[in-house]
Amino acid sequence: MMYRKLFTIVALLLSLSLMAQDPLRFEKEVNDLVATDAAVNSKRLILFTGSSSIRLWHNLAESFPNKNVLNRGFGGSEMSDMLYYTPQLILKHKPNIVFIYEGDNDIAAGRSIEQILANADSLVKSIRAALPKTKIVFISPKPSGARWHLKAQYEDFNSKLAQFTKSRKHVYFADVWVPMLDASGNLLPDLFLDDNLHMNEKGYVIWTKVLNQFL
């Protein structure tokens, strides 16, 4: 019986590891970001990190004038990737505030909400252990036409992510889902690039209004 239980546990851990993406696929991209660290001003730093919706926010400094902001978005990352690269992309800079955008690609890849939140919990613990006073803001996954068929999963995750943040000190939830919808719950028009997944400037204007509330 003991060996059967041990085999079951090992099989479960193996299956979970196989489900996770290899974070080393972003190693070069992260190394390229780290190579520019010498130019970073860490005084009262507001750090943005996460997947491509952050990486493609090219006018981040113009969106938050008179603020010391840093973009450390990378690839099509998931929460597990963010956890892996936390030392290089977050802890090293000791930001006052860190905005994290993960979960969008996780849901699209079929990750369970429990799995994503478990990685989010490990991420919070990692940041909190090194930076106890840093404010952590999780940005909700956004709605998009390309992934509208997953609407129910996104809404469920956003609800649970919001609850997750409420039970943790100095951890917050920024809802960009609702402001990107009209009164009928449909996507606002003209917020996306041709891929119907990544945002144009109009989409980032909405994000800026939401995130400014945390500054």
What is the count of DSSP helices, taking H or I runs of 4+ residues? 10
Shape: globular
- Counting DSSP E segments of at least 2 residues, the number of strands comes to 5
CATH architecture, by name, is: 3-Layer(aba) Sandwich
Total domain modules:
1
**What is the CATH homology-level superfamily?**
SGNH hydrolase
Poorly predicted runs: 1-19
Query: What is the N-to-C succession of helices and strands?
Result: HHEHHEHHEHHEHEH
Strands of the biggest beta sheet: in what spatial order? 2-1-3-4-5
Distance between the termini: 55 Å
Query: Largest sheet at a glance?
Result: 5 strands, parallel
Percentage of residues in helical conformation: 40-55%
Overall mean pLDDT score?
A: 92
Multimeric status of the protein:
single chain
CATH topology: Rossmann fold
Structural class: alpha/beta
Strand content: 5-15%
CATH class placement: Alpha Beta
- As a whole number of angstroms, the C-alpha radius of gyration is 18 Å
Characterization of the model:
By secondary structure, the chain is of the alpha/beta class. It contains ten helices and five strands, in the order ααβααβααβααβαβα. Strands 2-1-3-4-5 form a five-stranded parallel β-sheet. Helix 9 (151-166) links the parallel strand 4 and strand 5.
Can you summarize this structure?
This protein is an alpha/beta fold. It has a single domain, classed as Rossmann fold (3-Layer(aba) Sandwich), CATH 3.40.50.1110.
